[in-house]
């Protein structure tokens, strides 16, 4: 029977990495903006994600209550910087590639643990799974690195007046989505490396076709 404990670990790591990729894509805390004018942004903090921008305001709300206002970011908005456009597309691609990697790994592991000794088939599916894991990891790495660079250089975004957002923050910091994305990258790349390292043991009953 083929030993594939490392590839089983690859599946576990890939699953967690894919989930974290999905989480980072969904949450709004990519960039945390600190603003000086608290007339509308009452808390002085706004969150800039890849799909929407949110802040808390007490304006037009009963005393003692607060409300979170969000504006969606559309692919047709010309003011959106390139790193956010890239994040929108690449994270969707990463999600699909990660899912394909998981599917290929599940199929290969199924054959291994059911005792099917079809060397070429099993090896190819592990290689395909590893390829998709690594591509998914790279698709997450690019937008995470690019947005982190924008945060560290305090780059501005020319929001339209209807967003009630300043074009430049007083300061900004990386939100939770960026470290989550970094962990997802590490797990997906490890998963891909483990899958690609699979070597089918040579036995007398191995089917090579």
Q: How does this structure look, described?
A:
The longest helix is centred in the middle third of the chain and has 34 residues. The chain is elongated, with a radius of gyration of 22 Å. The protein has a 5-stranded antiparallel β-sheet. It is α+β, with helices and mostly antiparallel strands. The two termini are 18 Å apart. The chain contains 4 helices and 5 strands, in the order αββββααβα. A hairpin with a 3-residue loop joins β2 and β3.
Provide the fold topology.
Layout: H1 5-26, E1 31-34, E2 45-48, E3 52-57, E4 67-72, H2 82-113, H3 119-152, E5 171-174, H4 177-196
Antiparallel strand pairs: 1-2, 1-5, 2-3, 3-4
Short description:
This protein has 209 residues and is α+β, with helices and mostly antiparallel strands. The protein is built from four helices and five strands.
Total strand segments: 5
How much of the sequence is in beta strands? 5-15%
In which order are the strands of the major sheet placed? 4-3-2-1-5
Average pLDDT level? 86
- Proportion of residues in helical segments: 40-55%
The number of helical elements comes to 4
Order of helices and strands: HEEEEHHEH
Sketch the major β-sheet.
Answer: 5 strands, antiparallel
Form type: elongated
Distance between the termini: 18 Å
- Secondary-structure-based class equals alpha+beta
